[in-house]
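Thread: quick sanity check before group meeting

JM: Hey all, I'm pulling together slides for Thursday and realized we never actually wrote out the predicted structure for the chain we discussed last week. Dropping the sequence here so it's in one place. If anyone has concerns about the input, flag it before I start.
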Amino acid sequence: MKSLVLLLCLAQLWRCHSAPPGLGLVYRELNCDDPETEEAAQVAMDYVNAHLLQGYKHILNQIDKVKVWPRRPTGELFELELDTLETICHVLDPTPVANCTVRQLTEHAVEGDCDFRLLKLDGQFAVLFANCDSSPDSAEDVRKVCPDCPLLAPLNDTRVVHAVEAALAAFNAQSNGSYYQIVEVSRAQLAPLPPSTYVEFAVAATDCVAKEVTDPAKCNLLAEKQYGFCKATLTEKFGGEDVAVTCTVFQTQPVVPQPQPDGNNVAVPPLAVDPAAPQPAPANLPAAVRVVGPLVAAAPRRHLLHRAHYDLPGAFSGVASVESASGEALHPVKPPVVVGLAPTGPAGPVVRPCPGRIRHFKI
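JM (edit): ok, ran it. Output follows.
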């Protein structure tokens, strides 16, 4: 009899530790608009924008789902599903995302869908896993809101490529300082009447002087990277075309020597710069350029692909290779270790409402 009781106890203990999620394990469901849920969601969004390498910053639109699992020996694991919206701030723009304008439906908005796992330990959240996807609003929905609004165009469309090249040439022609090269074509739209192409693109300063360039291929990006972001419209007209371009150049990103194991210091750009710190004014900027602050990220040059927007999976830096503030590797984690099975008996409290409120608009 004692052996039988011991066997039953061992079997019950095994069930408590090995049963997968979704089979009655203990977790708590918060209200999607609960302050604790919103705090976790904000940490997740900060993580996304800190690790974007291309395209535009995203902002939280709606919290779809939240589950909180107990974690042994301490802490809790938050599972979140979030809806985001693209803003008009490029990832190179140091403007805080809270101050960035959400791209409207009439501008062909882009929505993101993200899954997160965050560890809450000693009152602090750390991202353990992040997976995001994004897609533009459908052409049909845009047409319902604005029948004549231009739609997103593929970034490698010949009209888009020509408009970017013409706009860059016009920008460099008015520069009294560095020659700028294309870093990324970020967005494009085509309008039928009058026939025109609207483009947005990122640029970077080179070691060449704009007025003296004869072979752009021989120009190299500056060691202390200086990026800019341009918006331009090329309008076709009888016998020619008009190009209107405006560019914002951001403060120079300094190169900071980093100690290496062999004792040799290698200069790499920092991940962040204190916006409150005084910054020296860059020299020889074109007169029409507005300096808005220090640069907080660096984007690699990208080949143009047949797509109309920079989707979050393609713009997101490698989650599996980056470490969070907690020091845990950012890769899909194993199911959380739980503390027991859900008790049988009377039904518990009614699950509180999810999804949460819509902060901007639904796509």
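AS: nice. The longest strand covers residues 56-70. Residues 260 and 266 are 7 Å apart (CA to CA).
JM: adding both to the slides.
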